[in-house]
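Action item from last meeting closed. Structure (657 res):
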């Protein structure tokens, strides 16, 4: 266990050697931006009530000042529209197949076609060449199965869709003989299921070094077996339940087969809006992505160095989303199942938001809060009818900027406050629901710690410590992003030695002294965000009342701190141990004490360097480990004072509130 604790501390220290190169990636079209916020996996969205209807004025807008126009241009992060009934109904998934239209020569499943060309084998220039449709099976194990079911060869393929083999004289060559009949089968296994496709029957002739490979002329009756029964119809839609396993096997007239054992996934649709392509609606959702011309929207883009070192975030990492235009005529989505296969989700789209209805947040809008009630500025179309918004500037009510005040009732979870956007005459259709996802965290923490300390004089002892920290969401409701909003925090700690420790005397020798300290810090984040969730560097203004034996000093210091989630490389390694398989947050601080409030007291090289890590066992309970260096060095007017250097290691536990 000591080894594990030591490893965690070393990793925490290394985390601060490499600066995070992550930056949010924004994508936008002419009318609609594609940057997204995504929910924490463990959170449960909680919609909140909305105020009474407050329609915006339809009068001609006043001339917008240049300064405001520039500010408004930074509002590029779209607020999503909730995908729910009655606007959109997602029907139960189906296995949609058609073995009839082409008279059994090909199978159409969803929008894919499986035929004799989906998996082919040939001899070209003394090479065995295998080609396959990577949209059906990206990669897997290729086998040669003879007519008796015996496996003559097995090899793993890459993802190229075109693979060659030439070493027929080695032990890795196919164990076929001249005159054998067999099929090539490509199979991809995942979890409890698989996807497989096999060719029609081949025959091989081997003479000297010449290999001839060709189809055998044989036909069979096309058929479909699904849900453990042979289907009477060669063209059908079989409705299945999300999460329920299903087996499917289709045999072509040539004898080629397509088979899977899988289950349909639950869709997580995040947004929909009128597409710029006429007759389509643009949908966004959480991965996995649907099959088709899908665009992936990265939640965050990391630099090459960050990715190479594995220093990605391990807490609250924005998830990637997919985006796809769906036609209003016969709208549907096709997804691979949990273990393979293809499932179709038919949609009923009765009503959808227009592009002009889109609401936008500032590109740097916060994604979290400490408070149960908060607010954010949004950009809206002046003619939109939206409940619950107030002008951002009372002197210019024609501005397209509005204040959205919302509630976040659920602590330590993702909340989903909503706005209701009416379309046309009231009562003609249900209002669209625009929403944001805001995580509400705890603003304070308290902990008790036990430290072992060793001095350069050879002494050692234990220290008991109490720590309290609190972060302000804002200063008395002031929304200034640089001087108030999620910038300031305070920290206080007290420690005392549990037994006296050896300290060096000025005239030589050592003496037993006690240590005690009360320290109060004021902290400022250079990057807005939440503690235990977002990364930041910040400044510290510190005051410490220190006692070393009979010597006292009241010190003033300045410093820096850095905090972030445990880098993903180290986090993944530690998660292999079940005890550490929890979110981890690490921080470091350096404080240089430069002066004293005591008249005549001079400070030497008096500093504190601390590395600290937290394991968040629950939303409110954490364990902590730390280590660091402390040097006390001050001289009073009567030439008395103290000089003591020490190294310490800390273990503790605490609560968030």
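Sequence:
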């Amino acid at each position: 266990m000591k080894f594990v604790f030591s490893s965690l501390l070393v990793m925490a220290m290394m985390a601060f050697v490499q600066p995070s190169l992550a930056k949010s990636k924004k994508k936008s079209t002419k009318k609609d931006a594609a940057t997204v916020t995504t929910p924490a996996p463990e959170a449960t969205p909680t919609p909140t009530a909305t105020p009474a209807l407050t329609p915006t004025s339809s009068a001609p807008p006043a001339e917008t000042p240049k300064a405001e126009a520039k500010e408004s241009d930074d509002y590029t992060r779209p607020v999503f529209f909730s995908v729910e009934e009655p606007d959109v109904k997602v029907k139960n998934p189906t296995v949609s197949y058609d073995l009839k239209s082409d008279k059994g020569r090909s199978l159409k499943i969803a929008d894919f076609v499986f035929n004799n060309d989906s998996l082919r084998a040939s001899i070209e220039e003394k090479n065995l060449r295998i080609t396959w449709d990577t949209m059906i099976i990206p990669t897997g194990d290729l086998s040669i199965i003879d007519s008796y079911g015996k496996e003559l060869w097995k090899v793993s393929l890459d993802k190229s869709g075109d693979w060659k083999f030439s070493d027929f004289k080695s032990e890795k060559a196919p164990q076929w003989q001249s005159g054998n009949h067999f099929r090539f089968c490509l199979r991809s296994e995942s979890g409890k299921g698989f996807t497989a496709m096999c060719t029609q029957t081949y025959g091989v002739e081997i003479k000297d070094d010449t290999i001839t490979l060709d189809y055998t002329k044989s036909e069979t009756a096309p058929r479909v077996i699904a849900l453990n029964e042979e289907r009477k119809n060669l063209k059908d839609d079989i409705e299945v339940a999300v999460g329920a396993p299903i087996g499917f096997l289709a045999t072509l007239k040539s004898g080629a087969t397509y088979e899977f054992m899988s289950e349909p996934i639950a869709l997580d649709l995040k947004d929909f809006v009128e597409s710029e392509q006429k007759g389509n609606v643009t949908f966004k959702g959480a991965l996995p992505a649907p099959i088709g011309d899908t665009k992936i929207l990265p939640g965050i883009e990391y630099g090459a160095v960050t990715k190479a070192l594995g220093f990605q975030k391990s807490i609250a990492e924005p998830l990637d989303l997919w985006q796809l235009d769906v036609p209003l005529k016969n709208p549907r989505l096709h997804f691979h199942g949990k273990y393979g296969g293809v499932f179709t989700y038919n949609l009923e789209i009765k009503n959808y938001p227009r592009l002009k209805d889109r609401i936008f947040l500032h590109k740097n809008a916060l994604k979290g809060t400490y408070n149960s009630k908060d607010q954010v500025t949004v950009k809206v179309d002046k003619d939109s009818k939206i409940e619950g918004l107030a002008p951002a500037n009372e002197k210019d009510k024609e501005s397209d900027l509005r204040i959205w005040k919302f509630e976040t009732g659920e602590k330590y979870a993702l909340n989903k406050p909503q706005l209701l956007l009416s379309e046309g005459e009231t009562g003609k259709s249900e209002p669209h629901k625009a929403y944001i996802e805001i995580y509400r965290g705890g603003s304070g923490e308290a902990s008790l710690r036990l430290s072992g300390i060793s001095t350069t004089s050879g002494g050692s002892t234990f220290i008991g410590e109490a720590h309290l920290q609190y972060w302000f969401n804002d200063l008395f409701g002031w929304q200034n992003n640089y001087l108030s909003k999620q910038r300031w925090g305070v920290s206080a700690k007290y420690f005392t030695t549990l037994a006296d420790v050896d300290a060096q005397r000025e005239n030589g020798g050592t003496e037993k002294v006690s240590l005690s300290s009360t320290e109060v810090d004021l902290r400022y984040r250079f990057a807005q965000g939440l503690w235990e969730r977002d990364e930041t560097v910040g400044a510290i203004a510190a005051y410490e009342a220190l006692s070393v034996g009979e010597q006292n000093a009241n010190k003033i210091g300045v410093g820096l701190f850095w905090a972030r989630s445990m880098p993903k490389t180290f986090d993944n390694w530690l998660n292999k141990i079940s005890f550490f398989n929890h979110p981890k947050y690490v921080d470091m601080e350096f404080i240089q004490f430069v002066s004293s409030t005591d008249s005549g007291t001079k400070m030497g090289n008096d500093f504190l360097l601390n590395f600290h890590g937290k394991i968040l066992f629950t939303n409110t309970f954490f364990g902590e480990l730390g280590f660091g260096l402390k040097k006390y060095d001050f001289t009073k007017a009567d030439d008395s004072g103290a000089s003591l250097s020490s190294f310490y290691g800390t273990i503790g536990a605490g609560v968030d509130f």
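Note appended to the action item: The first strand starts at residue 77 and ends at 78.
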